[in-house]
Design brief:
Strand content of chain B: under 5%
Largest interface: A-B, 39 and 43 residues
Structural class of chain B: mainly alpha
Structural class of chain A: alpha+beta
Radius of gyration of chain A: 55 Å
Order of helices and strands of chain B: HHHEHHHH
Largest sheet of chain A: 6 strands, mixed
Oligomer: heterodimer
Distance between the termini of chain B: 51 Å
Number of strands of chain A: 7
Number of helices of chain B: 7
Shape of chain A: rod-shaped
Number of strands of chain B: 1
Helix content of chain B: 55-70%
Helix content of chain A: 40-55%
Number of helices of chain A: 15
Largest sheet of chain B: none
Amino acid sequence: MAQQEDKISFSKKGKREVSPFVGHELLYDYLGGNLDSERHTAVAEHVKFSRDAQLDLSKIENGQSYAEKLSETVVSQPIIEQIGIPSSYLTVLLQKSQFDRWPQGLKWGLEALVVVAAIVVVLTITPWQKVVQLGMSTGSKEVILAEVSRTESAPIVEENPQFVDEDLKADSKADAVAAIGAKTSPSPADAKAEATIKIAQQEPAKPLTPAPPKEVDAKTKADSAAAAASGGFLYRGEIAVTNLESVEPKITEKIRELGGRKAGSVELGWKKTPNSAYYHFTIPEARYQELTNFLSIYGKTDLVKEKHPRVMPDGIVRLILTVDEDKK
Amino acid sequence: MTETETKSIALFFFFAFLDDQKAVEAAAKALVFCRDRKSKNPEMKNSVAVVAATKTVWNRYKSRITRGRPNTSGESGWLIPEGVDLGPWREFQKSAAEDELLTVIWSKILKISDADISEGLGITTGTIRYRLGRALRKLGSMAQGVRKVEHGTAGR
């Protein structure tokens, strides 16, 4: 290698001159100080005598200084964040479609279209039936004219004991007093009702105060009128049996077996008097005939269909049955 | 990847495309490439990874951009130094050869060393210097023309 370097052909004056072409190409290295001292001297000599080389050198210097200034360009923080965040499908779509450069009217139109579509979807999906029902159920101005239970198993809740209302037509004065007593008592407890009845039995000859029966009569008339207006009814009747003590549990059990449920405040087979059991209950209409057949085993049953303002659900009938001890 | 690399990538595509939106889009992809390369080869210098990633994404995008039709605005977040005219660069971006354009950006704007550029591209440093010499001569002549106009010496 050393021998080869020694053989480099210099000029006659012993100088290592560069051609104009090479000199031009080395200008950038010359300016950057990347040449060895010998080459540096050679290029300097070339620049000294070449006008083109001087111009090119000036251009390179200008270019470098201009690029230096450009390097001071600042990238704002939002752009750096935007680059750093992984791009979503929507942002890519917006970028590709150049949404920012769309005409303002077109953008507003598109946004309005999206909003309208969203509203239509919400209106279509919303279950308005349920919303309206919910709104009506919370309203306080609603007046309930009649409450009809559709489920057979649902218990019938009544504000006033049914016994009071239904037994008004009973002929005996004791019963009327019992009804008044039950009505005036604050709670439908059986004990209190029994106590009232006992008082009535102890004083059978004592005339009743005229006011309550009149009130009852008026109420009965009103009920009859209401019954006439509505389509409700009930079966009312009585049966005389021998040995009430043993028959009453059987009748109670049969009623329950047929799907009967108490309708008033007292239990099935409530002892109205020691010789009388009271039944106020509902039963499926399909089992009504079976019940009458069963009752006919113990005696002649006289069930009368009466009009009543209370409307029972379809397929359900209401009965008031009094089972008395046969006096014979 | 630090914020410096992110900024370098962003600047590369801004000056290469002269298009605000496409620069951000391409920079985001290049950053992903860059991170990927670094994860595969943790010993790779960040500047080398930046060169390689920007070159890859440039190759994908170069057909989609029309050089000579800049699409930039002053409100887009690229803050050009005060008193600097982008005119010469626009002219340069339009007329320069691809390798010259990219080499000037890497070397003179992003300040990446010739050795790192050559490593990132897989070419010699001599080639890099040669490209730089040619590119700076072109850029200088364009900047010189602007300066002459500014100083009122054009045509003399």
